[in-house]
Amino acid sequence: MDWTGLVFETIDMRSFSNLWFWIALAVFWSSNSHWVLGVPFDMVGRARRQGGQAAQDLEDMVRIQVNRRLFIAEQAGLWLVAIVSALLAMLASLGFWYDIELAQALFLLGFPMALVGGLSIAAAARIRSQNLTGEALCHKLAVLRFWVQVIGMIAIFVTAMWGMYQNLAHGVLG
């Protein structure tokens, strides 16, 4: 076997039959549920348990992340929505109309993440407008994390079902 054949056999170009895709999917959703609004969720638990400096650190970090996200949304929000929508439409068309598996995989990663992004912007706006601190802030971050995890579980389930279908339809038997 030549070198390029070995590389392409090791890095299977079909997304849903590739172990690396499933590892990336798991890491992707694991990190998204841990980093809520760009803040590691263990800081929320520490702030709830210890209070004091840990709570102040959480509030400072959330304030920085909220201001950063809302600044980007205010300055480039319309362009970001247009670009993300166009990319998702392109991936959906290439993936499901033209049957390009890589585009399907990227769409199944990107679409739920767009939902999480919108949810995060809405939560950031609510945190700023209500000036949440202390336990109310911790509760808001916990609720946001819950919904990110729900979206992640649904996304993983749909991706797994679609991936199994693709592997059965286009795999060894197809």
Automatic annotation (TrEMBL):
Domain of life: Bacteria
Keywords assigned by UniProt, alphabetized: Membrane, Transmembrane, Transmembrane helix
Membrane-spanning ranges: 20-41, 78-98, 104-125, 146-165
Name the UniProt record assigns to this protein: Component of SufBCD complex
